[in-house]
From TrEMBL:
<feature type="domain" description="Mannitol dehydrogenase C-terminal">
    <location>
        <begin position="289"/>
        <end position="477"/>
    </location>
</feature>
<dbReference type="Pfam" id="PF08125">
    <property type="entry name" value="Mannitol_dh_C"/>
</dbReference>
<dbReference type="InterPro" id="IPR013131">
    <property type="entry name" value="Mannitol_DH_N"/>
</dbReference>
<dbReference type="InterPro" id="IPR036291">
    <property type="entry name" value="NAD(P)-bd_dom_sf"/>
</dbReference>
<dbReference type="InterPro" id="IPR013328">
    <property type="entry name" value="6PGD_dom2"/>
</dbReference>
<protein>
    <submittedName>
        <fullName>Mannitol-1-phosphate/altronate dehydrogenase</fullName>
        <ecNumber>1.1.1.67</ecNumber>
    </submittedName>
</protein>
<dbReference type="InterPro" id="IPR008927">
    <property type="entry name" value="6-PGluconate_DH-like_C_sf"/>
</dbReference>
<dbReference type="Pfam" id="PF01232">
    <property type="entry name" value="Mannitol_dh"/>
</dbReference>
<dbReference type="InterPro" id="IPR000669">
    <property type="entry name" value="Mannitol_DH"/>
</dbReference>
<dbReference type="InterPro" id="IPR013118">
    <property type="entry name" value="Mannitol_DH_C"/>
</dbReference>
<keyword id="KW-0560">Oxidoreductase</keyword>
<feature type="domain" description="Mannitol dehydrogenase N-terminal">
    <location>
        <begin position="32"/>
        <end position="281"/>
    </location>
</feature>
<dbReference type="GO" id="GO:0050086">
    <property type="term" value="F:mannitol 2-dehydrogenase activity"/>
</dbReference>
<dbReference type="InterPro" id="IPR050988">
    <property type="entry name" value="Mannitol_DH/Oxidoreductase"/>
</dbReference>
């Protein structure tokens, strides 16, 4: 192999022609967006949309300044700053692999305990959008009430020390206070996380925090800032040695490359109080019905990931594609989604829920996308409560099947016990891992111990229909194994389908 080219502005002209690179003058870009949480997904999704717009000669005053609020963000910052915030995106198409260098991010703020650099950057009137990808569980929502968790220690700190906040939201409040005091006007807060009504949730958190320390500022934010809802979609595996090797195959020495599938989708409300890039020119959809797209994606794709990931972990399947290649898991995926979730999801323009299930089946099955089962199973505490439990509640309310969803929850409980069926250990994979493991171990003898975790299930343990199904499936998994439980569920589902077909009335 030829000598690798280190990724930087200085080396862009020497990069092989088979790699697509920025056609715009990065030195002439000026910032317009601060993005908090510069993970792989952001760089493969939002940064890519902006980059493509810049490639066409637009939005050169909307460059991204990256930011983080946790000490671990410093490692990513160091990698990206060393390569001028350039990122290699490797597209994983089953028939070919291609690479593109994205240059829409031009800086990454220093990580500071008091978030002073972030606050000062957000106070700059040139910044018109502050966007976030901080994970589903990062918005300080009480898991039972779904309201702003004002009692959380981080929130209490920020309320008592508003000028030196710990959280991204405290920094946003502090930055907005400076803008108001200096007469610079508001910015738009744009959540890019997988949350239903994510803009409303971001607004709830920012306003809730502001009201704890400065009610007048909260009123100003409420009157002037906008928080559009959005839906984001692209499968982006974690970066490891394989992804670094993929970049090297294109002659690039990139310390933080990103791989991604061929599919992308971004649906937004057009509510931006200080302007926005024309993302619709590169494929984003602006609509008043973001909710419909959110419901389809969260209830089918995100819940679908949880349907298969825990079974995959238990059976030592490394990737989501491996899970989809397993005949029992694949069949369960189709039955649970089509029989138990699709009935409660509405169509969107050009896509029915059943068609969407077929689309995500194809996407999950892509063998070129080595999306690890462990990554998808991470933080079940947020993902099951956000994606799976609403479907269970729909089924219970409407009298539709929930057997498969009860099995999904039993598989999560079995996974959280901490071992696979081959005897290997499952390493910590949830912010509440010790709590979940204790409950899972107790549930081995008394299944309701799992459902009695009220921070996850609320009062579902008292629902006899769901609790009975859950107890059956967890008992079957422990007594006879995961595959036996899957076979039994599929047989029950097949029998129910045949009975329904013979009695259509």
């Amino acid at each position: 192999m030829d000598e690798l080219i280190p990724l930087s502005d200085a080396t862009l002209s020497t990069i092989p022609s088979r790699v697509t690179k920025p056609r715009y003058d990065r030195s002439a870009l000026t910032p317009g967006i601060v993005h908090i949480g510069v993970g792989n997904f952001h760089r493969a999704h939002q940064a890519w949309y902006l980059h493509r717009l810049m490639q066409d000669g637009h939005a050169h005053d909307w460059a991204i300044i990256g930011a983080g609020v946790r000490p671990y963000d410093a490692a990513m910052r160091d990698k990206l700053v060393a390569q001028d915030c350039l990122t290699t995106l490797v597209e994983l198409n089953p028939s070919k692999t291609s690479a593109e260098i994205v240059g829409s991010m031009t800086g990454y703020l220093p990580i500071a305990a008091d978030n002073a650099p972030l606050i000062q950057q957000m106070a700059d009137p040139a910044i018109r959008i502050v966007a976030l990808t901080v994970t589903e569980g990062g918005y300080y929502i009480d898991p039972v009430t779904k309201e702003f968790d004002r009692r959380h220690a981080d929130i209490q700190h920020d309320a008592q020390h508003p000028e030196t906040p710990k959280t991204a939201f405290g920094a946003m409040v502090a930055g907005l206070k400076l803008r108001r005091d200096q007469g610079h006007g508001p910015f738009t807060g744009l959540s890019c996380d997988n949350l239903l009504a994510n803009g409303q949730i971001l607004r709830q958190t920012v306003l809730g925090l502001a009201r704890l320390s400065d009610p007048n500022l909260a009123d100003w934010i409420d009157a002037n800032c906008t928080f559009p809802n959005s839906m984001v979609d692209c499968i982006v595996p974690a970066t490891g040695s394989r992804e670094i090797a993929l970049a090297r195959e294109f002659g690039l020495d990139d310390k933080a490359p990103v791989s991604h599938e061929t599919f992308r989708q971004w649906v937004l409300e057009d509510r931006f109080c200080a302007g926005r890039p024309e993302w619709e020119k590169v494929g984003a959809t602006f609509t008043d019905n973001v909710h419909g797209y959110e419901m389809m994606k969260l209830r089918l794709l995100n819940a679908g990931h949880q349907v298969i990931a825990n079974a995959g972990e238990i059976l030592s399947l490394s990737t989501i594609a491996d899970c989809m290649a397993h005949p029992l898991i694949s069949a369960m995926f189709s039955k649970v989604l089509k029989d138990e979730i699709v009935p409660h999801v509405s169509a969107v323009p050009k896509m029915t829920p059943a068609q969407y299930v077929d689309l995500i089946r194809s996407r999950f099955s892509n063998p070129a996308v080595l999306d690890t089962t462990r990554r998808v199973a991470f933080d079940g505490s947020s993902r099951h409560t956000g994606f799976v439990l609403p479907a269970i509640e729909d089924g219970l309310e409407n009298g539709t099947p929930i057997e498969g969803l009860a099995l999904v929850e039993a598989l999560w409980a079995r996974m959280c016990e901490g071992s696979r069926e081959d005897g290997s250990r499952i390493e910590t994979n949830d912010p509440y891992w010790s709590q979940r493991t204790d409950a899972a171990q107790n549930a081995r003898l008394r299944p309701l111990a799992w459902l009695e975790q009220s921070d996850v299930y609320g009062d579902l343990a008292a629902n006899a229909r769901f609790a009975t199904a859950f107890e059956h499936w967890l008992g079957r998994i422990w007594s006879d194994g995961c595959e036996t439980a899957l076979r039994e569920y599929l047989q029950i589902a097949q029998t129910a389908t045949a009975r329904s077909a013979s009695n259509p009335g």
